[in-house]
Amino acid sequence: MTAPAEVPKVSPQPTHRPGAAPWPEARRTARTAARPLPRDSRLLAEALGHVLARPLSALTDLPAFDTSAMDGWAVAGPGPWRLGGAILAGDSSPRPLEDGAAVRIATGAQLPRGATAVLRSEEGEVLGGILTAARAPGLGQDVRPRGQECRTGDELLSTGCPVTPAVLGLAAAAGYDALTVVPRPTVEVLVLGDELLPAGLPRDGHVRDALGPLLPPWLRGLGADVLGTRRVGDTREALREAVSSSTADVVVTTGGTASGPVDFVHSVLSDLGARLLVDGVAVRPGHPMLLAVLPGGRHLVGLPGNPLAAVSGVLTLAEPLLSTLAGLPRADAYAAALTTAVPGHPADTRLVPVTLHDDGGASALRFHGPAMLRGLAAADAFAVIAPGGADAGADVEILELRW
Q: What residues are paired with 382 via a beta bridge?
């Protein structure tokens, strides 16, 4: 892992667009730019990864009836017991037990009326049809009583809970065949830049595409379904066709957001009649990022082309937007104390990759330039450094890497 080191000072570079949004304001704008997608009913097998759109309330008591927690004998009274028959899991309406009687029972089987406890297999002995035990089981021993886990109508999980495999299991146990969920928003990634190579070593002025492999799994980790990644040539027409033909809820572009000779994102958005919500953010790295509403209510997040600057755009704009669309609750913010001073930009927020320590500290990492990923690959999180910097020991906001 890359060793922590003091972060070099940042020289003033007021190159972002006039009127660039302060970083906290840009995050708030992205979070409120949309509403959760319309709720939908999904079979359990299709609900994984979505978010509950309504509370999950129990449709039955759990357990639905008194059951045996162990293999053994259901017994009535203090013993010894007359033994007869057996009850397996799935047997319905077992015959009641009279005082002094016992029946063989399997784990999970319904307890017969009149049973007072379950005697474990290893604690009983059968001789001549009579069951005995060195010590009689206490009342209710090894019995899972009806409603032990929940009663019908109890709220098991609240709205906004992600549907995990464990949630699917709980929902099935509680009687559900389908769940009402907020679907995962769909995303398409458009990688811009004729200088990018899909494979091999950098050569002849061309560099490897780092964002094509990086962004899709990251966006999936933020709750999105990535429809695909398209490479788009450096022409206005190619970009306009790619954006207008996309069916995704959110289009994510990489590069082309500044004012270079082949930076066409702004002009294409103007061509399409899009509405800019964020046009530049006072943050380092990544200040040329943008957020726009496309015709029909879809969104476009324009990320800078430099890899770490693009990651800054994901944390600033894509993550809060996708969280809202997916119906995810806002993550609780928390702080960590810096182990060393971290210089700041005079006017802009800085996002600095850090490692986190068990004692609650955070150490800034080297290799944090806009085009660098080495620091990110070793990082646990990003620290939010306010304009002017932060001293050693200062508590700073932490942005976790949710992937």
A: 353, 399
Q: Which CATH architecture has domain 40-60+157-182?
A: Alpha-Beta Complex (3.90)
From the candidate CATH numbers 2.170.190.11, 1.10.8.420, 3.40.50.720, 3.10.410.10, the one assigned to the domain spanning 67-144: 2.170.190.11
Domain residue ranges of the chain, discontinuous segments joined by +: 21-38+184-326, 40-60+157-182, 67-144, 334-400
CA Rg, the chain, in Å?
30
Instruction: Confirm or reject CATH 3.40.980.10 for domain 21-38+184-326, answering yes or no.
Output: yes
CA 320, CA 285: separation in Å to the nearest integer?
A: 18
Q: Indicate the pTM of the whole model.
A: 0.85
**Quick one: fold of 334-400?**
Beta-clip (2.40.340)
Give me 307's structure tokens. Answer: 């890899």
Question: Do residues 189 and 228 make contact, with C-beta atoms less than 8 angstroms apart?
Answer: yes
Separation in Å, CA 76 to CA 64, 69, 107, 230, 277? 21, 16, 17, 70, 72
Angle in degrees, CA 216, 218, 224, rounded to 5: 70
∠ at Cα 162 (156, 164), nearest 5°? 85
Looking at residue 284, what DSSP letter applies?
E
Instruction: Give the pLDDT confidence of 320-365 residue by residue, as tens digits.
Output: 999 999 999 888 889 999 999 999 999 999 999 999 999 999 999 9
Alpha helices in 222-328 (DSSP H): 236-245, 265-272, 307-313, 319-326
Residues paired with residue 203 on neighbouring β-strands, in sequence order: 206
What band does 9 get if pLDDT is binned at 50, 70 and 90? very low
Rounded Cα distance, 138 and 353, in Å = 58
Q: What is the pLDDT of residues 43-75, one digit of tens each?
A: 999 999 999 999 999 999 999 999 999 999 999
Token pair for residue 91?
């047997």
Q: Identify which of 239, 223, 303 has the alpha carbon closest to the alpha carbon of residue 49.
A: 223
Q: For the residues of 295-313, what is the DSSP string, one character each?
A: TTS-EEEEE-SSHHHHHHH
Residue 16 clears pLDDT 70, i.e. is over it? no
DSSP 8-state secondary structure symbol assigned to residue 315:
I
For residue 12, the model assigns a pLDDT of: 39
pLDDT exceeds cutoff 90 at 371: no
* Chain position carrying tokens 């669309």: 325
The three-state secondary structure class of 244 is helix
Domains 40-60+157-182 and 334-400 belong to one CATH topology:
no
